[in-house]
Amino acid sequence: MVSRVIPVDTFDLVIFGGTGDLARRKILPALYRRFCSGQMEGDSRIIGAARSDHTAEEFQQLIAEGIKEFDPKAYDAEKVAEFTSHLDYVHVDALGETGWKALAEKVSGDRVRAFYFSVAPSLFGALAERLHTHGMADSNTRIVVEKPFGHDLASARALNQDLAAHFDESQVYRIDHYLGKETVQNLMAVRFGNMLFEPLWNAQYVDHIQITVAETVGVGGRGEYYDKSGAMRDMVQNHLMQLLCLIAMEPPARFEPDAVRDEKLKVIRALEAVPADDIVRGQYSAAGKQPNYLDDVGDPTSRTESFIAMKVKISNWRWAGTPLYLRTGKKLKARTSEIAVVFKQTPHSIFGPESGSHRNILTIRLQPNEGMDLGVTIKEPGPGGMRLVDVPLDMTFAEALGPDAEDVPDAYERLIMDVIRGNQTLFMRGDEVEAAWAWADPIIDGWEQRGDRPMPYDPGSTGPEESMMLMHKDGRRWREIKT
Ligand code: NAP
Questions:
Q1: Which of 78, 205, 427, 436 has the most Cβ atoms closer than 10 angstroms to its Cβ?
Q2: Percent of the chain with pLDDT over 70
Q3: DSSP annotation of 122
Q4: Looking at residue 407, what is its pLDDT?
Q5: Is the Cβ atom of 50 under 6 angstroms away from ligand 1?
Q6: Average of pLDDT values for 161-188?
Q7: Res 220: pLDDT
Q8: Domain count, the chain
Q9: What phi and psi values does residue 410 have, to the nearest 5 degrees?
Q10: Atom of ligand 1 nearest to the CA of 121
Q11: CATH, residue 133
């Protein structure tokens, strides 16, 4: 299979926070890979902009080292030198006047112009305003904003208003890198490109849906940020919510930004309030030993959750009676992300009770081994009567599509190129983000008002025991978190 690379229009991409961790770890290596693939046309430019004073050469060196460190497999000294010759740097203060005139002069040409806000969200408003004041907020301009988009509904609204004061919604690209994953888009292809699944995609045939995003890492160096956020704000309100929307939404009329985002918004608005009994919060804690969440964040009294499991209901015709179970956490047994659509059993077994209970399960794996499999029930081979067994119809992309499937662009590569192409389909609209906070806020407020403490769980486990009970009490069980 030959993958097609269509070059994007010539662009200027300014990365505010170009010297920061995200820029070095993700954004620039992603651009480097797109450059190597031939997608970046000759005179496109990438301009780092940050508070510290660097020459363009120093910035180029910093980024070359970043590619070597964070993407050693793709590192090729000659290619990197060619790529970094497209990089420039301006010393800009988001909160002052330093550098803005110089930046405006650099990006004055008639070409696609994107500004990536890879800085703390507290700077978003100041950046938007200064781009406007210095004549860079015209109709050619796009802005890209990173997570977290707000801490609650009020702060998300304030951020939206700050951006809307200078930019139209069609110019704002709110990144959720989960939406850029190949499998997530494949989920839409499978649902809406096949006749097979959609007729069964409802409460009549689906017993329940599970979404698990498990990490093995702890809070690491992000303790201070994470402790103010927790799993609900850091993962559920954004990433798991986006996955939930794509799995549950009605078919959009077209694969176009607002058609897709309208349908996602309807799902969020149909979410029921979640009772406290349907949520389990956890905090990793190894009795007296490291690693321990409280040590990692340096606050022995912290009540922030590093794990959450919850049962969610969608009040609409399609999903009434079919719950979704969401689970995410740090320091778990394995790093795995998957969505499992668990279908109901057949209404009657012609093979009798001894054939056991069987269900079809469609599993969409985001990591590792991106792909899907569909569990189907067949006869166990050999003599001895009709014994049934569940086997997977495996659609691991790397196996099914050949080596090209391993070279698919990662989420940041795809999303940045979508910004340049002006395609907002895989970006969150402002009203979606606000609706997700409007759902999450009362849950978080409830914990705070009651002073709820998360349940301890062992690092390397599958989370607190109570999270198992959440399923058991409904006669269901979580899928295994596999190493
Ligand atoms: P970081 O390493 O602390 O970098 C912050 C950047 O902002 C630096 O380049 C810094 O420049 C620049 N900066 C700070 N104050 C400035 C000012 N007044 N004017 C201009 N530039 C200023 O942060 P990060 O980890 O890259 O994160 C950036 C954003 O992405 C944050 O919103 C974060 O929540 C989000 N994010 C990060 C990750 C990640 O993996 N790192 C993942 C998802 C989302 P100097 O270094 O020159 O001072």
A1: 436
A2: 95
A3: G
A4: 65
A5: yes
A6: 94
A7: 84
A8: 2
A9: -80, 180
A10: 32
A11: 3.40.50.720
Beta strands in 172-315 (DSSP E): 172-174, 206-214, 279-284, 307-312
Judged by average pLDDT, the poorest of 33-42, 155-164, 203-212, 324-333 is: 33-42
Q: Which residue segment(s) compose the domain that 200 sits in?
A: 179-472
The residue whose two tokens read 């910004």 is 419
Q: Residue 127 domain-assigned?
A: yes
pLDDT at res. 352:
84
Ligand 1 center to residue 20 CA distance, Å? 5
Q: 43 in ligand 1 pocket by Cβ < 6 Å?
A: no
Expressed in angstroms and rounded, the spacing between residue 19 Cα and the centre of ligand 1 is 8
Residue from 22, 58, 90, 122 to probe ligand 1 pocket by mutation (most atoms less than 8 Å from CB)? 22
Place of tokens 């077994």: 349
The enclosing domain of 325 has a CATH number of 3.30.360.10
Known catalytic residue at 86: no
Question: Is position 165 within any domain?
Answer: no
Q: Name the DSSP class of 117.
A: E
Same domain, 209 and 344: yes
Measure the CA–CA gap between 426 and 429, rounded to whole angstroms: 9
Catalytic residue among 208, 239, 348, 472, which? 239
Residue 52 Cα: closest atom of ligand 1: 47
